[in-house]
Design a protein that fits this description.
The protein is 20% helix and 34% strand. By secondary structure, the protein is of the alpha+beta class.
Length: 146
């Protein structure tokens, strides 16, 4: 496992749409492991593959309840509303208030290729939405309300 460089906001890769994973192979598993190590090393709560220069639909999150790994994540349900301050490992030193759903249901694959659903509320819902946005080239600064 290795620590990867986290791209910063001026990098054009962060504005590109990521491709779906067609096959979970050793390269995908290595990427997941590296992303987890990189996220923890940077003291983050989430990381998306584009942030480490890989345009694949993979995210990792840990809001203090253990690691969540999602391949090809899709928000299948959202409800409510919350506004809170966000930051991003790719945009160090900048924060802003962003409106997000209070609850989301996200479907994706785990590293074994099994379909899983994650129900996220409050901080986990925010983190899931933030990281999935990265997969579509959207940064939290695009959604800052103030």
């Amino acid at each position: 496992m290795a620590i990867r460089n986290i791209l910063k906001d001026e990098d054009p890769t962060l504005r590109k749409k990521s491709r779906e994973i067609e096959k979970i192979d050793q390269r995908v598993i290595t990427l997941l492991d590296d992303m987890i190590d990189t996220m923890y090393e940077a003291d983050g709560v989430g990381l998306a593959a584009p942030q480490v220069g890989v345009l694949k639909r993979i995210i990792v999150i840990d809001v203090g309840e253990g690691i969540i790994e999602l391949i090809n994540p899709v928000i299948v349900e959202s409800a409510g509303e919350q506004i809170d301050v966000e930051g991003c490992l790719s945009i160090p030193g900048i924060t802003g208030e962003v409106k997000r759903p209070a609850r989301v249901v996200v479907r994706g694959l785990n590293r074994s290729g099994k379909t899983i659903e994650i129900i996220g509320e409050e901080l986990l819902a925010r983190a899931l939405c933030h990281e999935i946005d990265h997969l579509d080239g959207i940064l939290f600064t695009d959604k800052v309300t103030k």
